Please model this.
Amino acid sequence: MIPATYRRALGGHGGGVFYLHGEDDFRKREAAREIAEAHLDPATRDFNFDVMSGPELDVRDLASVLATPPMMAEWRVVLVHGAEALAPLPAARKLVLGIAASPPEGLALILTATRPARSRARFYRDIVRAARSLEFRPVRANDLPGFLISWCHDRHGAEMNEDAARALAAAVGSDMGVLAQEIAKLISMAPEGRPITVETVEAGGIRVSRLDPWRWFDMVGGRDFAAATAALGELFMRGESGVFLVMGLTTHFLRIGLALDRGLSGLEAALPPHQRWLARRIQGQSRGWNRESLDAALLGLRRVDRLMKASALPHHHLLEEWLLAQRASAGEGGRAGPLRAGARTRRGEAVR
Model:
């Protein structure tokens, strides 16, 4: 049976053609391995599992392997890595698409591929429609903490708290292969039945900073502009990118806009599963904003983004200027309390 992690996305319970595509090679290979293991009987695995490389593939060999029935087992699994190499080969395209349209009994064909940039080959559209397809896009940096929490739970049945996920993401970066190894190590270190905490991360030899981009986004979302301005220099000293901070803030403000527009339930419905734990915090921050202040903040960020791309001005100074403008609008203390109820956005009124 297909692992629960992928069953809903791929549909069905086994066999046929699986097309795993996208730029995240680590998660593609993990998915391919799990789907293969779900079909294979350990006792007959060596007889019923073929791994092939697309760039080195001979179409006649592939056809022969695909035509071979399972031996003393329910399924035969053929895994082809680098299946984008099949796109320019008419015979290979015809073979694979024919099998996807009418899979032989007892066959599970797993294809992993990365579509070349700017490629318009029809093969990619056809295989997505014909096969059981799943795309693996790179995890965006500002989504990493939530993704790590979900990965820990879905893959290992273990819990990781929010602070630990943020600390790990800030220290390690977005390389999923490295992050997966670190998570496995931390799970083995955490007391049985207890979540992975910041203390676990520190005990694992990872240097933890008490300031990370996500805490900074919360400072700004909570309208604590004085603290956010004071912390900005530390973020840049640690090597954070001004472009990343602007992108992360923009995403953060769009979520605040959803909370203003649709309330907690609407925000939860709009967020993917690995981000829903953010909803209550975002809703709390939304009480400090209204439509006008949010529009002004986003317009200011758009200006900062354009200046970062078109001028030689230091990114740190551009963001600091934006923060000072927000701080001025919040008053001398640099922190604004909740806006009056009459100034809030009306339910159903979209943030531009």
Summary: DSSP finds 16 helices and five strands in the chain. Residues 336-352 have pLDDT under 50 and may be disordered.
